[in-house]
Design goal:
Blueprint (H helix, E strand, L loop, with lengths): L1 H18 L19 E3 H14 L3 H7 L12 H9 L33 H5 L6 H4 L6 H17 L4 E4 H8 L2 H8 L11 E2 L13 H15 L1
Antiparallel strand pairs: 1-2, 2-3
Helix pairs in contact: 1-7, 1-10, 2-8
Protein name: Zinc/iron-chelating domain-containing protein
Pfam family, one: CxxCxxCC
């Protein structure tokens, strides 16, 4: 478990390094993208749950208060999506409406209350322009490729785990028995709000970006030791 969490932290840092030289409009209080529709793996959920338990346990009560509100429920993972595309299959749409509301871990002032431990979906949602003015996140093609490749790597690192909505995942991991099952790679989906993770068979990297992504992956391996 410690090795998997170490790999996750390395992925987070490598992504931050990749974004450091980009001209991004993201800033504290910019929260248009912080909706109830964030999904994450159990590994990311464990990093986030442990941080909340240690630093801000009251946030679990906020999470529970809004647990009956609609949110995106994933039916496939990023590696599952890749497998479907490689097989030439149609990819089903997943209902995801930003109008369902803000992330339950966002403060009334629009500040992320778990910023240090936020999952990769939040870290990767970067934009070169303010989302509230454009209506969407603006990112260059290489950034999109880097995000997808690292998201695949996160899932690959947690290939015996699950993917689910942030709310559902944190409530799942609040149970010590579920945390123990995840540590021993024996956690199974309790219901259809969760989908099983998969190893990465191939990374979604277009030819122009292969050198950059290859160097990034080499950096991760070197830091893992």
């Amino acid at each position: 478990m410690d090795a998997r969490l170490k790999t996750l932290d390395i992925i987070y840092q490598v992504h931050a390094d990749q974004m450091a030289d980009k001209s991004l409009a993201c800033a504290k209080g910019c929260a248009t993208c912080c909706t109830r529709n964030v999904t994450l793996t159990t590994l990311e959920g464990r990093r986030l749950y442990d941080w909340i338990a240690a630093e801000a346990p009251h946030l679990m009560e906020l999470l529970k208060k809004d647990a009956d509100k609609p949110r995106q429920i994933p039916t496939y993972t990023i590696n599952g999506l890749t497998d479907m595309c490689m097989a030439g299959q149609d990819v089903p749409e997943e209902p995801s409406d930003p109008g369902w509301g803000a992330c339950p871990l966002l403060s009334e002032e629009g500040v992320c209350q778990v910023y240090e431990a936020r999952p990769f979906a939040c870290r990767s949602m970067v934009s070169q322009s303010r989302c509230e003015s454009e209506g969407f996140a603006e990112m260059d093609d290489l950034t999109l490729t880097i995000n997808n490749a690292l998201m695949q790597y996160v899932e690959h690192t947690d290939d015996n785990g699950l993917t689910g909505n942030l709310t559902d995942m944190l409530l799942l991991l609040e149970d010590e028995a579920n945390r123990s099952a995840h540590e021993t790679s024996t956690l199974s989906a309790p219901d259809d709000r969760f989908v099983a993770n998969r190893p990465a068979q191939v990374l979604m990297v277009p030819p122009p970006h292969r050198d950059a992504v290859g160097q990034m992956m080499q950096t991760i391996q070197e830091r893992k030791g």
